[in-house]
Amino acid sequence: MSIEINKIRNIGISAHIDSGKTTLTERILFYTQRIHAIHDVKGKDGVGATMDSMELEKERGITIASAATFCEWNKHEINIIDTPGHVDFTIEVERSLRVLDGAILVLCSVGGVQSQSITVDQQMKRYKVPCIAFINKCDRSGANPERVVEQLRDKLGHNAIAMQIPIGLEADHKGVVDLASMRAIYFDGENGEVLRYEDVPAELLELAQEKRDELIEQASNYCDELAEAFLEEQEISAAMILKALRKGVLTRSVTPVYMGSAYKNKGVQPLLDGAVQLLPNPSEVTNTALDLDNNEEQIELGSSNSDPTVALAFKLEDGQYGQLTYIRVYQGTLAKGDTLINTRSGKKIKIGRLVRMHASQMEDIDKIPAGYIGALFGIDCASGDTFTDPKLNYSMTSMFVPNPVISLAIIPKDNKAQINMSKALNRFSKEDPTFRTFVDEETNETIIEGMGELHLEVYVERMRREYNAEVTTGQPRVAYRETITKRAEFNYTHKKQTGGSGQYGRVAGYIEPYSEGEFEFINKVTGGAIPTQYISSCEKGFKAGLEKGALMEFPVTGIRVEINDGAAHAVDSSEMAFQAAARGAFQEAYKKAKPVIHEPIMKVVVETPTEFQGTVMGTINQRRGTILGAQDEGPMCVVESQVPLAEMFGYSTVLRSSTQGKAQFTMEFSNYRQVPQSITEELQKKKAEEGKKGAA
Amino acid sequence: MLKKDLMVRNPLRAVSDEHGYILPEGGLGAVVARAGVGKTALLVQLSLNSMLKGDKALHISLGDPVRKVSLWYREVFNNIGVHYHIEKIDELWNELLPQRFIMTFNIDGFSVPRLDERLTELADQNIFIPQMILIDGLPFNSETKRTDLHALKELSEKFNSHIWFTVRSHRHEEPDHDGLPVQIAEFADLLDVIIKLEPRNAAIGLKVLKGSGPISSQELSLDPATMLIKP
């Protein structure tokens, strides 16, 4: 690993499902001689493409988890981070986008810019990832790369500029004309590995010249010398064009477009050239960390190998030899034998074996310098953890993890499934902090919790595929909560005399709404009315009361308890007696404090062609949603709203069918809000019915 | 503090008619000021005032995204909360939220017929029927047509609403002989109220250039620290 930082590229390949992302990655690995044979995505030959290491992905032909793989091209080292194409896996998406410095946006030359491409593009915009585009499948019937370039401009707002024109389309697709160097490139050999450069075919010369002028005109916006040379009609070299264009790419103000057909082995090598020539190296990207000693203030990281180390674990995988942790080093160097701190847990870790990954094969290395991606063995950590030099207390991601909003009971089919399920759950909860699991003591069922319907569905599916754990699932349940709306006093005596020593404890005080947190306990007992040793029992008793509210048995939050008086008995008082007294006191006061139910409200953002704006708003309105606003962005329109999660089940199907599949939405947790009275009554009715069923 | 108390203490009450309106039904009003003086802050307070009354307010921004407009509302509302010592401000905010609708357009993408189309669609589905419409960022230049203002007036009448918009003036431009900013002088006959914001010593004064009723006789200003209206 002696290569300079300007020869490193950490890139992602982003695309919607079925635009050929995995095939393209496979070809890249083949041409960079990382693999020596080409396999198809859907596994016709039973081997499957190399990049999709998960069974589920192989079957569906989609990529869910991000694996990092390393390859070399033109003396540059490229780390390819496979990015999930779906927005619902927010944490996963966020992590993979954190570690990339640039991206290749893959589009289908027939389908063009589809709603999924819009999603993917939005993610890149949000994380300001510079990108180049690749229009794939030029061999397919109906291929029209020029239209896709137009769509990139109109639908995605990219300043897209073609770097190539195709030589033939559909079945006649033979190669491309490179506009910067004005050469035709053909791809010979069994797998297109031999590049043949020739003059531009006569019939394309005029078009190529016209497109080249457009390219130079665009590029000259970023370089005065080039602009001058263009105006003075001087000879302009490919290098000059690329140098100027690169400046535009780094600021995300221009998107160069390459084209070809990965499946037919055309156009991949020039795309790789483009990636190393135009996308940024790690030192050209500003990365920030959060200073935990300073109220999570943003700190700009350096990219020098000699700075104190800051690294992010962005992906975990279960390997043959234990947990494999993918890591990106942002500053400093991570070397074998180093001692670092995991800022989340505060634990010290010693770096053992370091490797560089190529999908599922690995190569041992001694150190990972700044800007590089590698993997560690034998480190116990969770995905998203930051490792730093003991001098620093930085975190790459916010320590704030939202509480799950939806839960699902899962029941293993048999004993074997039970064991495998436990393994899977253990792994998933380590990988994803928003995924949690516990056993419901009453029903003895295993419950999984997460951030949305799809979020949980994917994990259930992964359990089946990867861990061979057959499970059946219950109905998804929304994580309702209870809270109180007014202050209520309590004065409760717990007294029992049933032979032997009795139980006695009295607690008095009040409970009131508390908006700054979930629970606060204040002890204002004076004069020893309640002996000090029983105060913590009182707190325990109140906390026990919070587990199930008296209204609908949902967890209670947002309560402050103050005890200010009480009484004890020299013989009959005990910790247990005071716990019981506090529980009783809570029940007594809770009913008087006007309890209400709160439900999770999601921020739902729908992006739709303008003609469906009204329809989309209608669908939100029907779901008790509040429309915050509608943003008109030319042909597309973004509708922002807040909708109760309970109303969002099955929304993707409704949205698809009411907008001809042209609208798409993202959903994230916003806040908890009081459930309207009519809905509370409905919930109570439903619960009563369930209770009856259970009794029968 | 209840919504009602907040309305009673609202300084805008002193300049409103008995129904709480500054403009007549179907009327148009303009807030004129130089950049950065507080047009949007005033517009948001006019909007919040109508929301507190139980009316629905449609805020149209030409240029700013929904998120930025939302921020303005939250900021002004929080300041009101601090100023009037409102407890449970979040609860009150959640209660008011469904009464507000933000629509944003690129300046080039905005036209009155387009707005009419959107509003009709919202009204037909009974999603949102505004009693108050606020348009922030409508360009007033040589291309502004009288027909557009007429169309806005018709729209206001159609929905029985009140429309306020902002007009940006420039330091170097002299007002016309009636003291009206040049941008709107030729449309003044179509406007029911024109308020100019101008910095005065330690506050920003609200000068009524056109208008009748309580608005014409009361002195109001904006506190430059919080941008809240004060008597």
Count of alpha and pi helical runs of chain B:
8
The neighbouring-strand order within the major sheet of chain B is: 3-2-4-5-1-6-7-8-9
- The H-and-E topology of chain B, N to C, reads as HEHEHHEHEHEHEEHEE
How many helices of chain A? The count is 16
In quaternary terms, these chains amount to: heterodimer
| Content-based structural category of chain A | alpha+beta
Count of distinct strands of chain A: 38
Largest sheet entry of chain B: 9 strands, mixed
Q: What spatial form of chain B do the alpha-carbon principal axes imply? A: globular
Shape of chain A: elongated
Explain what you see.
The complex is a heterodimer of chains A (696) and B (231). Chain A has 5 domains: 5-284, Rossmann fold (3-Layer(aba) Sandwich); 288-395, Beta Barrel (Elongation Factor Tu (Ef-tu), domain 3); 406-478, Alpha-Beta Plaits (2-Layer Sandwich), CATH 3.30.70.870; 486-593, 2-Layer Sandwich (Ribosomal Protein S5, domain 2), CATH 3.30.230; 599-678, Alpha-Beta Plaits (2-Layer Sandwich), CATH 3.30.70.240. In chain A, the strands form 8 sheets. Chain A has an 8-stranded antiparallel beta sheet. Chain A is elongated and about 105 Å long. In chain A, a hairpin with a 5-residue loop joins strand 12 (288-291) and strand 13. Helix content of chain A is 28%, strand content 32%. With 696 residues, chain A is of the alpha+beta class. Chain B has 231 residues and is an alpha/beta fold. Chain B has a 9-stranded mixed beta sheet with strand order 3-2-4-5-1-6-7-8-9, with helices on both faces. In chain B, helix 2 packs across helix 3. The longest helix of chain B is centred in the N-terminal third of the chain and has 18 residues, at 66-83. Chain B is globular and about 50 Å long. Chains A and B meet through helix 14, strand 36 and strand 37 of A and helix 3, strand 3 and helix 5 of B. Strand 36 of chain A pairs parallel with strand 3 (100-105) of chain B.
